[in-house]
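User: C-alpha cells for DNA replication protein DnaC, please.
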Amino acid sequence: MAMGYSKEIIEAANRAMEQRRRQSITKAEQRRRSFFSRYPRALEIERELSRTAAKAAKAVLTGSNARLELERLKESNQALQSELAALLKSAGVSEDYLEIRYACPLCKDEGYVDGKMCSCMKQLLRDEAYQRLNALSPLSLSSFDTFSLDYYGEAPLKAGGIPPKKRMEDIYRYCKNYAANFDPQLSPSLLMQGATGLGKTHLSLAIARAAIGKGFGVIYCSAPNIIGKLEKERFRSARGSADESDVYLLECDLLILDDLGTEFPTSFSSSTIYNMINSRLMASRPTIISTNLTMRELEKQYSQRLVSRIMGNHVRLEFLGSDVRQKKRLIR
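Assistant: Done. Predicted C-alpha cells:
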C-alpha cells in the first residue's frame, strides 16, 4: 500500500487521476476543434507535419540518399512549424494552445514517473484521506489552532491536585510536538484518558491532520463503528472481505481508535480490539487511543492482558477539566 493508505483511498485517488487526465484530453480536443474551424490552414499544417514524419522514417529505412532527404524534410518541417506558430500568434493564443495541457506535466496525469509515484498522486492520496477522515470524525477536522485552553479551570479539582489548565497546557504542547515530529517508525502510541468533552478527539484529529499533511496514511475510527464494520464483514458470504479491513487497519501509518469502551461488549469486540492494538504494537506502528474509562474500568471491560499491553507500550495522557462542549453551548 502506498504510504500506508487503505485500498479504498488508493482506488479513489486513481479514479480522480484518471478523471483529471480525461478532462485534460477533452479540453485539448475542444480547443483544437474550435481553432481548426477558424483556421483551417492549421489543420492542413498538422497533417503535413505528420506526413513529413512518415517520410523521414521511410527515408531512413530505404537508405537511398537518406541524408539529403532528411535535410529537405527538416527544412520543410521547420517552415511548417513556423507557419503554425505565426497562426497561433495572430489568433492571440500561446504556442502550446493545441497541445494537451496536463494538470501535472511531469507525469502527464498518470500518477507515476518511471515507476515511481509522482508528487501529484501523493497529493491526491493526502486529499482523499483528509476528506474521509473529516467525513468519519464526529467533529469537523480539528487543528491545533482551534484548540482553546480558555475553557479549562485554573483551580485544582481537588486539594493538592494540578490545575486543569496547567495539565492541558502540557498535553497540548506534547501533542503539538508529537505531530510536528511524527514518524510512523519512531513515534510512540498514545493513550488519551479523561471524561467526556475534554478535547481528546480534537487533539487526536489535530495530530491526524498534521500527519496527513506530511503524506502519511491515517485512519480514524470510533470503536463502535469499526467493530460494527468488522463484524458485518466477518459474517458476509464473500470470503476475505474482513481480512482486507484488518490489513489496512494494521498497515496505516497512524490509527486513531476513538471512544474505546463505548462499543457493545462481546467476545468478538474484546478479541478484535486486543488483536488490533497488539498487532500494531508488534509491527511498531503507532496508535492513538482515546477513552472515557479508567484503567480499572478498561480491565473490567476487556482483560488484564489488554490493559497491560496498553500501559506498557503507550504514553498516557490524562485529561482534566469539565465538559468543554457544554461550556461552549452555554456561551452560545
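User: Anything notable?

Assistant: The first strand starts at residue 112 and ends at 113.
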